[in-house]
Design a protein that fits this description.
6-stranded parallel sheet; 30 helices; 48% helix
Length: 708
Amino acid sequence: MDPDRVLEGLDPEQTLAARALRGPVCILAGAGTGKTRAITHRIAHAVASGVVSEQQILAVTFTTRAAGEMRGRLRALGAPRVQARTFHAAALRQLSFFWPQVIGGEKPTLIESKIQAVARAAHSVGVQPDRTGLRDLASEIEWAKVTQVRPTDYESAVAKASRQAPLPAGEVARVFEAYEELRREHNLLDFESMLELTAGMINEYPAIAQRVREQYRYFVVDEFQDVNPLQKLLLDAWLGDRDDLCVVGDPSQTIYSFAGATPSYLTGFAARYPHATVVELVRDYRSTPQVVRVANHVISQARGTTSAGHLTLRAQRPDGPDPVYQEYDDEPAEATGVARKIRALMEEGVPAGEIAVLVRINAQSAAYEQALTDQGIPFSVRGTTRFFERPEIKQAVHLLRGARHEAAGEEPAPLIATVRQLLGQIGLTDTAPEGRQARERWESLAALAQLAEDMAAAPRPGGAPVTMNDLVEELDVRISTEHAPGFEGVTIASLHAAKGLEWDAVFLVGLTEGMMPIIYAETDEQVEEERRLFYVGVTRAREHLAMSWSLARSPGGRKTRKPSRFLDGLRPASPSTAARRAERRRGPARCRVCGNTLTDAAERKLGRCLDCPSSYDEALLERLRDWRRAVSQEQKVPAYVIFTDATLQAIAEQEPSGVPQLSAVSGVGPAKLDRYGEAVLALVAGAEPAEVMEGRDSPDGEEEDVAG
C-alpha cells in the first residue's frame, strides 16, 4: 500500500488522527463524524508506513457487528489480517489458548445468560423473585462484577454509589455470593469472570504476559466512553507499561453508567497521558443542519462531569426538512398519528427500512406495533432474542445446509425459488400473519429470504449464478459475527438498542416527564444520562426527525402529562431553558435542625443532617410504606421506583399539608406528584392504605425499565 493514498478522501481532522501513528492518541468523535473511517485509515496507514505489522494490532469494539464492519473496511484498505474483536471475544480466545498450561483440566462452560443460575442461587438462600426480579438481580450482579465489587463488599459499595438495589442490599449480597459459589462448583464461566481471569492470567504469569504483549503491540479501542473498570483492567494487562494506545469516543454518548461504564477513562485520558495527541472530529456527515441544530441544543444544556467535554457538531449535509414536534391527547392517538406519518413518508419515497420508531422502554412498543399493523406497514422489533438463536432461524439454517448437501454435484436450481420453497415449509408465506409472535417468526424467515434475493441480485465475477453453497457460506460468516440480515421494514427499538445505528427518518415518541427522563432518574447524574440518551436518539436521524408526546395514557384519561424538559427551548411555545433553570434555581440546601449546608444526596432529600435528631410519626411512615408496597405489586415495579425510602421518610418528617408543600420534598418531581400526590396527601391526613387504594382513580400509566 502507498501510505499517502490511504489518506485520500479524509477531511483535515480525520487526516490529523490518521497521521498520529504512535500512541497515546485520543480521538473525540461526535455523532456522524466518521470515527470508524478515521481509525481504520489510521490502522491501514500505520501498516503501510511500516510502523507495525497487521498481526500485531488489536482493535477492540463493543459489538460483533462493529468488529465485522471494521474488519471489512480494513480488508478494503489492504490490511485483512488485523484482529478486530470485542473485549469478550479477545479474552475468550486468549483464555482458551492458555487454559491448559495455566489451570488445566476441563475448560469451564460459558454462561451466556445468568437468569437460570441466578434463579438457582436465589432459591438456595431463600429469595424468591419473579422473572422481572431475576432479570434485575442478574443485572445487579453484572454491575457488581464489572465494577470489581465482591459479595462481602456489595452493601457498602451500593451505599457509597447511592445506588438503588432491586432488593434489600443484604439479600442481593447473599444471592451474589451463592451465585459465585454455584458457578465455581459447576465449573461455569460468565462474561465478567472471563475478563477477570484473562487479566489475572496475564498479570500473574510473566511468560504469558510476554507472549501476549509480543503478539499485540498496537491497540485501538472504540466507544471508549463505555469502558467499565473490568474492561479497563484487561486493557491495562494487555498494554503493560506501553502506551501505543488509540482510544475513540464521545462523552456525550455515555448511556451505560447504570451498567458500570464510566466516561472518566476517556475524559481523563489526556491527564493520564500528558504527551497524548488529542483530535476532535466535529464535521457531521450524517445529519442535516436542522437535525444537527437540535442535537447541539440538547447537549449544550448538559451539566455535570461530561458537560465540559461536549462537542459542537458542524453539519456538512445540505438543508433538509425542519424537525416536527407533535402533541397528542393520548397514547393510542400518538401511535396512530406516528403510523400515518410513516405511511406518508413511504409514499414520498422513503424506504420502510430507513425509518425507525425509538422508545424509552420496550413496553412502549406494543402500541406502535399495532398501529403499524393497522396501516399495513411492515416492521421489526430490535433488541429481542438474537437473530441466529431464534428457533425458526436454527431450523431454517438446518434446512438450507441440508439442501446444499443434496444439491452437491447437480445442476444448481434457481436460488430464490428454492429458498422460498424450503422456508415455506416452516412458515414463510406471501403475507405477514396476524399476532405478534407469528409475525416475529415470519419476519425472521422473510429476512433470510431477502438475504438470498440480495445475494442473487448482486453482480458476480463472470456472471456466475449464486448457489445454495454461497448462501450457506454467507450465513456461516454472519453466524460467527452475529451479523443478522436486515428486514425491509420499519424498525422499532429502544433508545439504548439504537446506539450505533442510523436511519433517514427517526420518530422519538413518548417524550413526557416520567418517561424522558425516566421516572426513577432522581439524581442530577441520572437525569444527565437521560439527556445523553435523548441526544443519542436525535443523532440517529439523517434527514427527518419527529418528536411527539401524549397528555394521557388512554382515551378519556386525565391529561396531566407534561412534555419532556429536554424539549424546552425547542418545541413551539415551550418555556425557554433559561426560564426553566431560573425557576429551579435555589440557594444551597440547609439542615432544618442545625442550619448547616447539606452536601450529601440523602441529607438533601431528608432536609437535615443524618446525625441530627429527627421527629416523625412512625405510624405515618408505616402507612406510606404499606401503600408503596401495594402500588409496586399492582404495577409490577420495584418499590423504589415509586418513592425511595429516603423520600418516604422526608414526607413523614415534613408532613406536607398540600400540593405546594409536597412538591417541595426532594424526590417528588412533577410526574410523581401527578401520579401519586393525591394518595400521599390522603395518607398524611390520616387515611389508611386500603382506603387510598380502593378510592383512587385508575392509574394513568405504569412504567417498567427494560432498556437496551
